[in-house]
Every structure is written in structure tokens, then in C-alpha cells.
Amino acid sequence: MFSKVSTCALIGVDGYNFFVETDLTGGLPNFHLVGLAAPSVKEARERVRAAIKNSGFVFPDGRITVNLAPADLRKDGSGYDLAIAAGILAATEQLPLESLQSRVFVGELSLDGEIREIPGVMAMAASMKHQAGENSLLEFIVPRGNAQEASMVESLQVRGAANLRELVTYLKGESTLPDTTMDINTILMDSRDGGDPDFKDVKGQLMAKRALEIGAAGGHNIILTGPPGTGKTMLARRIPSILPSMTLDECLEVTKIHSVAGLLKKGKPLITKRPFRTPHHSASAVGVLGGGRIPQPGEVSLSHLGVLFLDEFPEYSREVLEGLRQPLEDGELTITRAEMTVLYPSRFMLVASRNPCPCGYYQDPRRECRCSEAQIRRYRIRSSGPLMDRIDLHVEVPSMQYKELEVEKDGESSDVIRQRVEKARAIQRDRFGDSGISCNASMSHRQIQEYCPLDRETRSLLRRAFDSLALSMRAHDRIIKVARTIADLDEEKNIKPAHIAEAIQHRSLDRKF
Q: pTM of this prediction?
């Protein structure tokens, strides 16, 4: 007997349709699993054998050949177990063959027949729905623990099964499995819980607060430089409180990446707040950038459409820092292996903080720096010129006077700042339309020319800054992008000299070095 079952697997953050073909013939008992299967997939033979027997079904004694097609792509993971078991049961006529049609099976089996959760189910569901078309009657059979996650994909029938016996009785028409649905609008309405730290708690540092508002409004990269204890980390951790709310498409895009990484929390199938990731400076390049033997998304992809905060920026390894250049420039990260190439979306807002020197008190008016010129130079060159050139806003966070701490009046709240940020982002969405970008930081050189015309006076100011500061062409374009965001915050249609001047002011490292 022969059976063919549809399943799904991940390559990067996209799901691809695979088929499990099962053939039973006479002969000595043997179980062959072919189709470029990794060791984790080959182990399915023992899991499936035990699950079928312990669920009360008959495991065949003859020669079993299971082919995972297409055979030229490597298969990894345990998500094929359920499809293999369904194929064997159908080939042995314990399941009707027609019950496998228009259904996709994914899930891992335990030895007692329980269907266990696997990562990436939402990404699989989205891809299968896209491949099948909007009017398809495709049914997606998943572990019960993954059912809510998969149901985030609209117009897809999702049925979660707890164990193999429950699934078989459903496929034979002897019982029912409810179609899992979720009310996405209700989830979105509850997305802001007000738990983020508030900017009103920060005393002083008005220049830094203004820079962070500009960065949040336009999605610009920021580096904060200042002595220890001046509030760099405190400011950075309050950025999520002023970021604009995510659209439904953005929520689904971020959730898909976290689903692939297996980071979705129980009972929270949809991520509704922008990610804020803070890897430690001892993190490896694979942990930050992604990769591994089986490529997995790293911190730069997990912070997609959110914030990647790198505290003590120069302390990260050179491999990590230089690896940031591609995602900062392209908004995506390519990981190449001998057997495959995967592409992970990585359009994030980089927020970095650092001291001006190893001891932290270089040019501080209140403390004496103990570092030699050679030590300061070595510390600074850890952050290469090409990398620093990709950071839009260079912000100094100086030491504060005690009188600034005595001020009883709270600063501007995050809610007030976020309202201005939301208005600026709305202007940008209207400007870019369906061009594929949503904020000023993502503009290409051609789009800068189209959306950021400069009059003669404004261009003259930019020309003088370009010559006197010896700016690169990349820095030139990034100043214009920041100026465009400042103009949006001021609700101005055109960029004015004051906007360019403020953007130049926020390139402090270019001015000093």
C-alpha cells in the first residue's frame, strides 16, 4: 500500500510544503527513512513506532519505506513525526486515504502518542495559506499547544490535536476537533499595558531626550556617549514607551520570527509590542547575528521592527560589531551554509551606549581621566568608522549638576512624547504609501532625492558642514534623513535650514573626531 501526506517545514522564517510518501511491501521487517533527513528526523522512526503501538494501533511488520520529498532539500527537526505516523496508518488501512486530502500535518510525537508542540508553526501556517490561496479549504492539523498561534493566520482552518488516538478518531469521522479561532482585534486593543518605564522619571538630559524622540519618530540608529552613571541605560530602557504602536501586519511579522525561535509565551500567541532586545556584551556572534548548524534567528532578527540595545558597545567582540553592518544597511541578514542560504529580516533601531574612554571620564569637568592617549585610541577604534557611519544620531549624555536633581517637577511623560512620534510616523506612512518602507531611516538614496528636496539656503548649509566635517556620502544622506524626521515632528512639508542644523548637531562624533 502507498500513501502521501502533506506536511510543512521551515527554511529561515518561511514555511515550505513537503510530502511524506509511505510505501509498504512484504519482506523482513525494516523501516527506511530517505530524503536527505538529518539525524533528528531519522530518530522519528523510533518515536513513530512507539507512538503507534502505545496508542492502540498496529505497527506493520513488513518493509516500510518513507520518503521525504523533495529529496534534494535537507530536513531537520521533529515536526515530521505526525505526518509520518499518519502516512503509515493510512498505508495500513487503519486510516482512510481520503482523510489525508486537503490537510497538512505537523507535530512531534512522544512515545505514548502525545502530540507535542514545535517551533515555527505560525510561519508554517502563513506560508501554507499563501501557497494554497485565499479560497482554499486547507486544514492545518497541529499540536493543541500550537493551535492558538497558528490561528493568527486568517481564513485558515486550524485544528489542534492532543494525541494520536484523538486525531485518528477525528480523521475516521468518529469524533470532532474544534476549529481554533482567535479574536485578533481584542488582542490588539489590550496591547499596551502601561508597564514600560516612563520618561518623566528622567531628570535633565533634555538634549538626549530630544534625540531619542527623533530616533523613535524616524527609526534612526543612536549611540549615547557619556561618563558612567549619567543615565544612558536609563534613557535607553524608556525608548519602548515612546515607540509607535504596531500595525497588525507588523505584529504578525514579528510574531512569525519569534515563533521560529520558539520564544512565544503560553497564552500569548501574538506579539503586540515592539521588541526590545538587550544581549550581554559577552554574547557570541551566532547569538547576536544568528546562524548555527541549523540556522536560527539571532538578536538582530528578534529585534526586527523594534530596538536592539547594546550597552557597553565597544566591549562586544569585533565579529559581532562588524557583523551589524549588513543588517543596519540592508534591513536583512543573509546566513549562508553549504546546504542552504537563509534570509532573516532584521530592520531594527540600534541603540548603543558607551563611555568616552576605558575609565569613563575623558574630558569630564568633574573627574580626572586616568587613561593614556593610546588606551583611549584603542578603545575608540573597537567601533570602526564604517560602523559608526551607519549610526544616525551621536548623542552626548554629560554629567549632571546636583541642582538638576533637585528639580521637583517631573519631565515630559512618555505618553506626550509618543503622541508626537505617532503623528510623525503617520506622516511618513502617507508619504511612502506602498513603497515597502514605513519610516525615514529606511529611505534609499533615490527616495531621499524624491522625498527630501532642499532649497538653496538649506543645501548651502549642508555643503559647508560636509566640507568642514569631512563627512562621507553615507553620513550626508543620514543627516538628510534625520532632518526629514525633524521636519515631520514640526509638521513641516519641506526641510528647512533649522532642521539640517539640528541634524548636524546630533552628529557629535563627526564634529569632534
A: 0.89
What class does CATH assign to 199-407?
A: alpha beta
Domain boundaries, the chain: 2-182, 199-407
- Choose among 304, 307, 303: nearest CA to 352: 307
> pLDDT digit string (tens) for 201-213?
888 888 999 999 9
CA angle, residues 70, 76, 79, in degrees to nearest 5: 90
Is residue 275 reached through a cis peptide bond, with omega within 30 degrees of 0 on the bond before it?
Answer: no
Please write the tens of the pLDDT for every residue from 295-315.
889 999 999 999 999 999 999
The top-level CATH class assigned to 2-182 is: alpha beta
Output the pLDDT for position 513.
45
Say how far apart CA 449 and CA 5 lie, in whole Å. 52
Q: How many Å is the Cα radius of gyration of the chain?
A: 27
Nearest alpha carbon to residue 388 among 227, 295, 278, 508: 508
SS3 404: helix
Share of the chain above pLDDT 90, in %: 58
Going by C-alpha positions, the residue among 18, 17, 266, 5 that lies closest to residue 126 is 17
| Alpha-carbon distances, residue 261 vs 71, 106, 291, 338 (angstroms) | 25, 17, 12, 22
